[in-house]
Every structure is written in structure tokens, then in C-alpha cells.
Amino acid sequence: MDEAKALPASYRRRSGMTKMKSFETHRKQRGIVYGVISLLIFSLAVVLPSLAVAKAARELNVTYVIAYLAGISAVTVYAYWSDKKKAETASWRTPEKTLHLLELLGGWTAAFLSQRLFRHKITKGKYQLTFWLIGALHQYLSLDYLHKWRYTIRFYQIIESLLK
Questions:
Q1: Contact between 8 and 14 (Cβ < 8 Å)
Q2: In sequence order, which residues have a C-beta less than 8 Å from that of residue 83 and are 6 or more positions away?
């Protein structure tokens, strides 16, 4: 039986599939669109952290900054790869808390790329929510650092005035 015909007619109409388009062609097109969107999101998500890293490299020892980021990224990629392999063989898994800790410590961009490269953890809603919250935190901290912690200082001033 043709794979496209195996799908309900309502799905074929909604997704733009016709008799001429096979299910496989539709999947490939969807994959290309997903890849382009992922690349765009990644490009936007690394702008502020990259600027913050460049500033930190100027203010601190550039060797230490690069070594730290390379190290945390390598460990993060390895953790995702290892967890994916363990998932395929039903072995003892890497705890999600560990993966999130690596993201929080600076491996967020490596985690983003690893998720797409290994097709791992990209459909788990709760995991993705935490992942994107960590990504938003990286954006905030990068912006705040670039502005000499202005937003955090102002936040503490507001809290302090409310507590008086």
C-alpha cells in the first residue's frame, strides 16, 4: 500500500499532501524547514552570549575563557551522545538533571546542537521547557553582563526598597 494513502485523508489535506506528493517527500520537506528554522533560532540565540564571551575574554584571561567553554561544550556533547547510545541499548541513562546542569554551566549551545545532531530529547515537552528556560537565562545574563549588571542591580534596589 502507498504510504501516503495509509494516512487519513484529513491529514493529507491539512498538510498539503496530494496524490502526487508521497509521504516520504513530505517528510523530507518538513525536515528541511525544521533544519532552517533550527539554524535561524540557533543563530539568534548565540548573538548575546557570543558578545558576552568576547567581553569576558577581553576582561579576563582569554585562554581560560576559551578553555572553559571548549571543555564544557565537549562534556555536554559527550553527555548527549552517551545518553542517546544508552537510550538505544536500554542501559542506565544520564539523569536529565545532569544534562540541564551542563546546559546551565555554559553548555547550552552545545546542547542545542547535540539535540539536533543526535535527534535526542527534542520531543520531550517538559525537558524542552526547562532547556529553553535555561537558554532564556543565558540570554538575560549575557545582556545584563554586557550592560554592567544594570538590570540585576536595579532589581535588587527595588527589592531592597520594598523590604524597608
A1: no
A2: 93, 94, 99, 120, 121
| Residue 106 contacts residue 114 (beta carbons within 8 Å) | no
CA distance 98 to 79: 9
The DSSP result for 2-56, as a single string, is -HHHHS-HHHHHHTT--SSS-HHHHHHHHHHHHHHHHHHHHHHHTHHHHHHHHHH
Q: pTM (2 decimals)?
A: 0.75
Please spell the DSSP secondary structure of 57-108, one letter per residue.
Answer: HHHS-HHHHHHHHHHHHHHHHHHHHHHHHHHHTT-PPPPHHHHHHHIIIIIH
Q: What percent of the chain has pLDDT over 70?
A: 81
Enumerate the domain spans of the chain.
21-163
Dihedral sign for Cα 136, 47, 147, 101, please: positive
Residue at 21: amino acid letter: K
